[in-house]
Write a structure and sequence with these properties.
This protein is α/β, with parallel strands linked by helices and about 575 residues long. The strands form 5 sheets. Strands 3-11-8-2-7-5-6 form a 7-stranded mixed beta sheet, with helices on both faces. α1 runs parallel beside α4, α1 packs antiparallel against α7 and α4 packs antiparallel against α7. The N and C termini lie far apart (about 105 Å).
Length: about 575
Amino acid sequence: MLDISDRKNSNRQRIMNASTFKRRTAKIKTRSRFSVVLALYLCTALIIPNCILAYTEHYSLWITEASILLPLGFYMMWSVALRRSGIQIWLAFPFIFIACFQIVLLYLFGNSVIATDMFTNLLTTNPGEAGELLSNIYPSVILVGLLYIPLLWLAAREIAHRRYLTRMARIIIGMTGAALFSTGLLLLWPAYRMSEDRHVLRDQIFPINAFYNMGVCASEFRKVSHFNETSDGFSFEAIRTDSVAGREIYVYIIGEASRAMNWQLYGYERETTPELMRTDSLVVFRNILTQSNTTHKSVPMFLSSIATDQHDELYRRKGLPALFNEVGFDTWFISNQSPQGAMIDRLVHDTKHIVYLESPRHDMQLLETMQRCIAESRSRKIFFMLHCYGSHFSYHQRYPREFARFLPDDDVAISAAHVEKLRNAYDNSIRYTDHFLAKTIDYLNSLDRTTSALLYCADHGEDLFDDTRGRFLHASPTTTAYQLYVASLAWFSPKYRRTFPQKVAAAKANAHGASTTHMMFHTIADIASIESDYLDRSVSLVSSEFDHSAPRYYLNDHNEAVPFRKTGLCEYDEAVFRKFRIEL
């Protein structure tokens, strides 16, 4: 009887063990399947930017296929490199960050990979400006949140529950990824043979190109951080060629995001510059293109004597303040923009007086501060550099409400549906710039027995949903005519005109000369009658030696000087340049 009972208990135990084993096996399979799904979720989420770029970029068929298969294969192999898929997903955070950044950029600009300048913008833009922009592109922020936050959350749960992939799942996913990766590598051979670009992998395969650009950005920041050492001992060995009796005041104004085609002075149908239209002795330069569509690269070129093709020399030469210091000027840098930790701050470091203004940041504060400085100064020779906020987005915040001439100008999300309000606000900001410049000129004109001059130029222009491309803002990886064509002008006091009639005559003669923002440094130095081996009168707009036939160059994302036609311009841009009689 005991044997029968023992056998029954033993059978019952075996049945229970088998049932428990089946339940555990089923649970393991379920967990493993979820880990597989999560690994594939990672691959799908990361390949989305590549699929969009395959549509937006004008790649050859070979490059398009390679740009999808090569990264997809890598992502699949990456997702199963460890048994714990959750850990592997969090280790992929750099790829997730780059994917998020790329999607936001595509929403903003419509095409192109994350440029070096975009990484620099990310590091140098102050929190206030970043907040203004992000609040207006919230659909893209929400989209990347919906795509990638659940992925990271689920990965964290996988780690907490100690789930893992089965050996068979890892083999299948890994081998499939290896096959796709190998196919992508093979496709690079015809891609290189049929492309003019000798750097297809570096320049056209995402995210390799994005990480390369990140490396270029890091290299530039390294050079900026060592600027004091690399420029130590530099001297312009400057002298003045003409002496002026009495007081001298020269004002160099760097504008922000002010495209020429929205200025009444350039033929715009709206009254955006009514005060300057009534200003005497104004010289408007009508053929100036910026060397860069980003502030952090364009403004240093305003402050440095280097040509576009001498970018490495930027880190070995001191800037404009040092030049004026050498010839005995009292130098001032007054900015409506916060310190950015970029090259701008390094080049103005030699300025004797540096003032960063507090909010609210309307540009008339610059004039008010300059007036106080002049009233308190005993120097006979003063040089001011004023860095405006100008027409930087968000436009409606750049002017007091009494300058809201064009309505409605409400704060709205960035969208082509809101183009009227955005354009109204932008034009109001131009009108306020007009007021600021006119009042600055009036003030200088009121200073009796003072030789004075003013030179203004915007650092870059702006896109405003001008055509079917739907482009907006600036700093995009590819340029447009609207970002390149900038407003610039000069004014000379009565005493200056009597003392230097040849310079004023040259400025008028060069008003239509083909120029870039490279000319600004040499022009303001020439206005002040400064001479140095590092100054070139052939690029000074107040010199009779100005070279109207010199080729013009743009500083591209990899800091190479390229012709403007090779900056991503299309037929829309060529039509704009023809309208304003600009030849590239």
